[in-house]
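Re-run requested by the PI after the first attempt was lost when the workstation crashed. Everything re-entered from the original request form. Ligand of interest: fe (ii) ion.
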Amino acid sequence: MANKDKTKELDEYTKGRVENLPAAGDVRVSSVQNAVKTNNFEIERDRNADVSAARKDSYLAADIADLLIQQIGLELNNHYLYKNFGIWYDINSLFGQAAYFYHRAAEEQDHAQWVIDYLTRADFLFSIPGTDATYIDIFKDKNDLRIRDPHDETLIREIETTRAINNIKAVAEETHDYITSHWLRNLLLEQAEEEELSHTALDIFNHTDDPLIVDKYFKDVVMAQLQASK
Ligand SMILES: [Fe+2]
Ligand SMILES: [Fe+2]
């Protein structure tokens, strides 16, 4: 075929392609019509119907949020309890254990704030629960308080706290809330450290009954380790 013929054939082909192109507006209209035909819009409507208003406000379900709010209460209960223990040691001039319990109290406040931050980042509106743990409540019937009693109470508190966080983890997994389940990891690992530390604190009482040696151990050994691991 001569070059001239080739060019003519190409011109006609191109012209035909251009003439058959839909106008800009037509493209949109035909897409919408196709979507309706294939029921895309119906599917979108059904999806919206499945999503509750609460789910649109926050990905946290009310049940799991309630448990997390209770956890804030537990952490703050422990915070105030340990602060009260610190005060008791302080006024009895056992400054090593006073420093130890003030340190523990500060950590509990941090944990409460972690949970507060998690809830607020999820846009979940809540109020902090009231606290009820005080030194006086726990030891009101005890006239002969021994210096290891607050440490015994602390270990029990920490075991209860570990169980409470484990329960939140179990509920999160059961309800397929993998976001919360994943987030709980750090809180659990931190909690394991706290429970272990409470064991360590009791170990010294197996070695001596002397309150001044005990207190010096807290001041020189336990506090030094806590400061070093910060
Ligand atoms: Fe804690
Ligand atoms: Fe704790």
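Saved to the shared folder this time. The two ends are 86 Å apart (CA to CA).
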